[in-house]
Amino acid sequence: MITFDRVSKRYGRITAVGELSLNVASGEIVVLAGPSGCGKTTSLTMINRLVEPTSGTISIDGRDTAGMDVDALRRSIGYVIQQVGLFPHQTVAENIATVPRLVGWSRPRIAARVEELLELVGLPAAGYARRLPAELSGGERQRVGVARALGADPDILLMDEPFGAIDPIVRVRLQNELLRLQRVLHKTIVFVTHDIDEAVRIGDRVALLSQGGVLEQYARPVELLAHPASPFVAEFLGEGRMVRRLALLRVRDARLAQHNGSGLPTASVSADASLRDALDAVLRADGGRVTVRDAGAVLGVIDSDAIREASR
Question: Beta strand 63-64 with 55-60: parallel, antiparallel or unpaired?
Fold first, then answer.
């Protein structure tokens, strides 16, 4: 667990982060979101002490990071940034091996880890290990950046707008890839973004900050979208927040109309689909109703009224 206890960062008279207190549970993705200048990156980089707090305490599993050796601390935490920061003169394999080499792993162990991570991020070693960063696409470089951050198998991963410079289509793919990796690895991830759609898509919890690093709300995405804690939060979420919320809810959690085995709508939707997908199917279906199926079995029927009720 990462704990912020009344953490502040001031530059002269300017407060970048003001008395921030929150807990990041082990194995969760916590997203720091908010407008430019709200202290997201400053808060993130105080975890690995690239920026030192002016006051307050940041602890990891109960240990105050201020008392840790700073080099050992940074090597124990993965770090991914927007521009990736790969060493241009090193191959993909050499980039990924950076931290394992620094902490003294043997060559066979490093080679095995590099191959394992390349497979994990979908870049087979046979085709990518010997390439230079310049020979990769933007999305591929970002995947290598994630693999490098995972090199020494850290428990914590810090990600500072890692997909911000990627085109929208590749960005969604990388978000999906991150969620897939998290289901396998169960890391503690702190992720910075100014994009609220990205925040609610990938975060187990979202910390929404305002100017001066003030914590406006810290909640699960479904709760954040349903119950903004302040006018600032509501404004930042925008007008489409309930539609975003539909994307986070599953069809199987809605109250479905029962069926008698006959007269079922031809159109169907999976029970594991989002309510947003279900709404799309309902709007396109003749009669405004679709059948809900789970591995071929019929669970019931859903319509716009059921979707509206489930979204509240």
Answer: antiparallel
Q: How far apart are CA 202 and CA 77, in angstroms?
A: 20
Report how far Cα 284 is from the mean position of its chain's Cα atoms: 32
250: exposed, middle or buried (Cβ count in 10 Å: 0-12, 13-18, 19+): middle
- Yes or no: is domain 251-311 CATH 3.40.50.1110? no
Second-level CATH architecture of 2-246: 3-Layer(aba) Sandwich (3.40)
**20: helix, coil or strand?**
strand
Q: Which of 202, 206, 225, 203 is nearest to 215 (CA)?
A: 206
Pairing relationship of beta strands 214-219 and 205-210 according to DSSP bridges = antiparallel
Please provide the DSSP assignment of 67-106 as one string. Answer: GS-HHHHHHTEEEEETT----TTS-HHHHHTHHHHHTT--
Q: Write out the chain's pLDDT in tens, 312 residues.
A: 999 999 999 999 999 999 999 999 999 999 999 998 899 999 999 999 999 999 999 999 999 999 999 998 998 898 888 766 788 899 999 999 988 998 889 999 999 999 989 988 888 888 899 999 889 888 888 888 888 888 888 899 999 988 876 777 878 888 888 888 898 889 999 999 988 889 998 999 999 999 989 999 999 998 998 889 999 999 998 877 777 788 888 888 888 888 766 678 888 888 888 888 888 888 988 888 888 888 878 888 888 888 888 777
Q: Where are the domains of the chain?
A: 2-246, 251-311
Phi, psi (5° rounding) for residue 72?
-65, -40
Phi and psi of 311, rounded to 5°? -80, -10
Q: Which residue in 48, 41, 143, 51 sits closest to 92, CA to CA?
A: 143
